[in-house]
Amino acid sequence: MSEPDFLCNTRSSYDALAADYGRRFRDEMAAKPLDRAVLAAFAELVRTAGLGPVADVGCGTGRVTAHLNGLDVPVSGIDVSPRMIAAARRAHPGLRFEVGSMLALDLPDAALGGLLAWYSVIHIPEDRLPEVFAEFHRVLAPGGYLQLAFQVGDEPLHLTEALGHPVSLDLHRRRPERVAEQLALAGIPVRARLLREADEEGEFPERTPQAFLLARKPATVRAWP
After folding, report:
1. What is the number of other CB atoms lying within 10 angstroms of the CB of residue 216?
2. What is the largest CA-CA distance in the chain?
3. Average per-residue pLDDT in the chain?
4. What is the DSSP letter of 60?
């Protein structure tokens, strides 16, 4: 079966960006204390649950994967771009990174205690998002946590250039309440949400507000009374 165009475009675009992307965003986490707080809470919940490892899905060059590893979370990274994965392996040789797609994760059912999708579902078209969330539900253990981050908005942004390279990337901005509804339908109800206004200053300026949703697959199925 042939791959959808958006997946091919995402892969080829990030392959082109890989070398410069790692250098540009290497220190981004240090500049965003609220983002670090979100990841710290996610890491603590996953550790406390003790249900298994975490997958950083759409890990790019592995900077957030490495950050989670520093929070004592057993974590590995998955990305659709082979060159991004190669850059992640060079930058973080002690961690495991694999090429893969969130449309069909090469993981057993209920294998994960946590799944991080940190600005990676932004490349998934609206009509394929339920498919992705169903896959997240499949690989999460009962009681496992899902942490999403994405830009807030109503219209996608199409990029033809990034970091000096020609690309073809669609960035799907979304409303947190709509994403929460879709997660609930997928069986991963949202437990907490944070909306952060755009940081328009500093080294990493943003165009839109940023959303962070923490969801959890129910630990048990409730019996009908």
Report:
1. 20
2. 60
3. 93
4. T
Residue 89 contacts by C-beta under 8 Å, 6 or more apart in sequence? 62, 97
Task: Retrieve residue 68's tokens.
Answer: 């989670």
Q: What is the pLDDT of residue 19?
A: 85
Distances (CA, A) of 136 to 63, 90, 104, 215: 21, 27, 9, 11
Residue 115 and residue 55 in contact, taking contact as beta carbons nearer than 8 Å: yes
Alpha helices (runs of H) in the chain, residue ranges in sequence order: 5-24, 33-49, 63-70, 82-91, 129-139, 176-185
* Tokens standing for residue 100: 């893969």
List, in order, residues 6 or more apart from 187 with CB less than 8 Å away: 137, 217, 218
Crossing angle of helices 63-70 and 33-49, in 10° steps, is 60
Encode pLDDT of 158-168 as tens digits.
988 888 888 88
pLDDT of res. 221? 54
